[in-house]
Amino acid sequence: MVGAGTAPDDPAAARGIARRAQSDIYRAGISGARPAVPTEPAALEEAARAALSTEAYAYIAGGAGSERTVAANRAAFARWQVWPRPLRDVSVRDLGTRFLGLDRPTPLLLAPLGVMELAHADADLAVARAAAAMGVPVVLSNQASVPMERVAAAAPDGARLFQLYWSASDELNASLLRRAEASGAEAIVITLDTHLLGWRTRDLDLGFLPFTRGMGIAQYTSDPVFRDLVRVRAGSAPSGTTVRVTPKTIAAGISIARNGAAITGTRSLRENLRSPLPRVAVETFLDVFSTPALIWDDLAKARSWTTLPLILKGVVHPDDAARAVDEGIDGVWVSNHGGRQIDQSVPTLDVLPAIVERVAGRVPVIFDSGVRGGADVFIALALGATMVALGRPYAYGLGIAGEAGVREVIRDVLAELDITLGLAGLTAVRDVDASALRPTTGS
Question: Mean pLDDT in the chain?
């Protein structure tokens, strides 16, 4: 059995964990043991709702506007059915695939999720260790709660990619990419669809944005370029902004001070409360986080900042996918940010086949948004995805049971994928295509 914080001894190890999952759960049940997290997706979310604070659950689970895109992402999967073919020998099954020039034990990725300290104190460290234990690459968020170097040290054998939110400061962008490459990232995932923050009604109704509390900005406060920006801002005239002092104001100030240790160089809460630097760091972050002026021509700069492969995340139009390939981009990630950016946006599964057709196998196509279980992964693979990324479910697992919860969520998704593969009459992920599906009647 692969333990936490270690990578599988061989590519078959992660597949073996998934294949044994059902048997292990039932055998443990004889003595009264139960899984650490629910295996059914809706129950998993409900358990996370009970475990998390109101603000944390809203931030992780919420979508844009009336959340029609979140619902549409799920409805898109309902338009497809797996078409089983029995009487085939499926006793030996292979979940392996090839991605970025390497053989991978499974086609699963962990999507970049920010501010995981909302779910658990171990945050990205727990996620990275769990992913490494299961042989699944993790895409480390630009909005992580832990600097990328600490994550790399916590799971040195795990596969990692780094996700960049294109900042208004090119010097900062370059620094982040240099650090990502130095810390062992295999590729850079440039997220395109957050140049403006979506209208997230759950967060708005609570008046809660974690970054204003100094949360989820560890990649920035650990960056030398960002620190210089903070020092310059701290030396300028104060803005004069005032806030009403309430218990929540005080709590927010304490949160900012605690998260400001990387800027001040001290872990003393008293000193950080007295220092203006943590507050200035938050203000600086809010100023430079993104730029709505980002255009295609700007992407060429990334080639001078890193030698790593570049993947564009947030592609939902076939023309954009084709242009990305023509521009020399190394991968296309079909995503609508899990419905968190635009209300009533295009469901990603609906556009996946057209994007796959336009890309025509020239670069890998990664898919996310709406994925909740192994059958969803199977459907996305059948429609042409090279890799499938899991998002909210692993955050729910983290909130319920920490690192063990993330491991179990990954295990459950892979186990269902493996079982679906075999029951569909197939023995290898590489053989999954549209012939394994049929449209739902009346769709």
Answer: 90
> In this structure, what token pair is assigned to residue 357?
């057709």
Q: Identify whether the C-beta of residue 235 lies closer than 8 Å to the C-beta of residue 285.
A: no
Options 120, 195, 317, 337, the catalytic residue? 337
Give all domains of the chain, ordered by start, each with its CATH number: 11-197+291-439 (3.20.20.70), 214-287 (no CATH)
Question: Per residue in 30-85, pLDDT tens?
Answer: 999 999 999 999 999 999 999 999 999 999 999 999 999 999 999 999 999 999 99
Measure the CA–CA gap between 254 and 160, rounded to whole angstroms: 32
Beta-ladder partners of 64: 200
Model confidence at 233, pLDDT cuts 50, 70, 90, reads: confident
Helix (H, G, I), strand (E, B) or coil at 99: strand
CA 10 to chain centre: 25
How far is Cα 318 from Cα 222, in angstroms, rounded to an integer? Answer: 37
Pairing of β 188-191 and β 160-165: parallel
Q: What sign does the CA torsion over 294, 297, 298, 303 have?
A: positive
Helix axes 224-234, 170-182, angle to 10 degrees: 150
Verify whether residue 317 is a known catalytic residue: no
Query: Taking the CB of residue 84, how many other CB atoms lie within 10 A of it?
Result: 13
Q: Alpha-carbon distance 160 to 151, whole Å? A: 9
Contact criterion met (CB below 8 Å) for 364 and 380: no
Residue entry with tokens 């967060």: 203
Question: How many CB atoms within 10 Å of residue 188?
Answer: 25
The strand pair at 437-439 and 331-334 is best described as unpaired
Structure tokens at 273: 């409360």
Q: Tell me the C-alpha to C-alpha distance, in Å, between residue 416 and each of 94, 135, 411, 412, 435.
A: 13, 16, 9, 6, 19
The contacts of residue 390 (CB under 8 Å, 6+ apart) are 108, 109, 110, 111, 368, 371, 377, 409, 410, 413
- For the record, the structure tokens of 52 come out as 């998390």
CA distance 171 to 86: 57
CA–CA separation, 272 and 263 (whole Å) = 9
C-alpha span between 181 and 110 (Å, rounded): 19
Classified as helix, coil or strand, 110 is strand
Model's pTM, two decimal places?
0.91
CA pseudo-torsion sign 189, 192, 193, 194? positive
